[in-house]
């Protein structure tokens, strides 16, 4: 070991109760799921921090469980993105499947976990934004008064004012619930690399029901990896007032409203990010325009 570096202590709980005991003694521990985030960070391992503690979740059997009913699927936090594709590709929303397949090869998706994709402080994937569009919920375990508590929370409630996913101190995501969406218009696109060029990368996720010329319950989210997730219920509500197809003037008005919100939330988007965001919004509107003109509502997939 090099001078000045220390090898962290690795804890391997087998159950939630063991996890609670470890967190109680080491509240500042780092959580290790698939390792795709922590091992890409500079100085993450070995660590320059003295007495660094890591909790590895891979031995907790209940975090590997997958179950479904007629309305939703529930994934333990250690279920990998590749396993999600294999078990739910025929029933899960298309926008989610498109997001996973865009992340990378199976070398990555076989290691990356759904819990880790949500809980990492820096965005290495666009997955959380897509889960917000799908109104997914997460079970959060957290310490309070020396006891481990559990609470189901909508993904939107985990977003702070800066568009970052925020968990309570020593908090852990244990399960994620995703409803089987019946929305007939879903769109996902990512431009640039969240890993190698986060300053210029951006993604967009959209889901809604298009009936004739209006949208019902639309949701849209943009993810900027070096800033956060841009999501607003107010923007969703604006989409419900639109009548498709939009002309160029209506598109420009919508674009101006969305960028006013983006600029009020995030500072210093790169010029390329702004250009790419405009392009993604244009692609979504073009697809909605086309569907509103060519495909009867009862025939859309």
TrEMBL record:
A family per Pfam: FAD_binding_5
Protein name: FAD binding domain-containing protein
Domain of life: Bacteria
Ranges of residues in domain FAD-binding PCMH-type: 3-183
Gene Ontology terms for molecular function: FAD binding; oxidoreductase activity
UniProt keyword Oxidoreductase, yes or no: yes
This protein's record includes keyword Repeat: no
Lineage, broadest ranks: Bacteria, Pseudomonadati, Spirochaetota, Spirochaetia, Spirochaetales
Keywords assigned: FAD, Flavoprotein, Oxidoreductase
